[in-house]
Each structure stands twice: as structure tokens, then as C-alpha cells.
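Good day; I would like, with your permission, to put a structural problem before you. A protein sequence and the C-alpha cells that stand for its backbone fold form the material at issue. Thank you for your consideration; the sequence and its C-alpha cells are set out here:
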Amino acid sequence: MGAGALPTPEEFRTVVDGLDGTQNALVRADMVFFETAHGGAVFATGSITYGMSLGHNNYDNNISTITLNVVNRFLDPRPFVMPAEA
């Protein structure tokens, strides 16, 4: 994550150096993907930081690539396949 991305306010009591995403491992963007019944799937991100990351380096970054791959797969008419239970 880059400069300007901060943890949520409840995670810190005062503003000090080292809070932004270039120095703080708590600043992150979690994501999840899973297949659902009847050929569906879910992709979700758990942070506004994910969206803030899209434009980094003129959109030439891992988050933009992941997002493009997800959108292209969801546009593909082939149904998603649920993995076999372990």
C-alpha cells in the first residue's frame, strides 16, 4: 500500500510517523474468492485501500491485474465449478 493509506481511526490513538501503508503492515486490503452452488462465485475486497490501490503506477500494478482477471472471468459465460470437498 502506498502513502496516504492509513489504518482505520480506531486502530490508532494519535497520528505519528510510520502509520501509512509504506511503513505499517496493518494497512492492507484483504480479498476473498469462492465458488457457489449453481455455477456462481463471489469476489470481495475488505478494504477501501483496495480501490485506492488501483491507480498506483498509472494502473500498472498487481491489484489492477487481479481486478482485470476477475472481471474477465466473471464475463466468461462458463459456469464456475465448486471444488470437491476434502
